Amino acid sequence: MTRTLHWFRDDLRAADNPSLLAARKHAEAPGDILGVYILDEHTPGIRPLGGAAKWWLHQALCSLRENLAACGIPLLIRQGGPHALLPALAADTGADRVHWSRRYGGAERELDAGVKRELRDRGLTAESFSATLLHEPWTIQTTTGGPYKVFTPFWKALSQRDIPPPQDAPQPLGELNQSTSALTESGVSLGEIESLSLQPTAPNWAHTWPTIWDPTEAGGHHRLETFIEEQAASYHDQAQYPGAGATSRLSAYLRFGQLSPQQVWHSAGAVPHAESKTRFRTELGWRDFSWHLLYHFPELPRSNMRAEFDNYPWKVPEEDPQTFRAWTAGQTGFPLADAGLRELWATGHMHNRVRMVTASLLVKNLGIHWRAGEAWFWDTLVDADAASNPVNWQWVAGSGADAAPYFRIFNPERQQKRFDPDFRYIRTWVPEHDSAEYPEPLVDLQLSRQNALADYAALRGDGR
Question: Where is the Photolyase/cryptochrome alpha/beta domain (predicted)?
Answer without folding.
Answer: 2-134
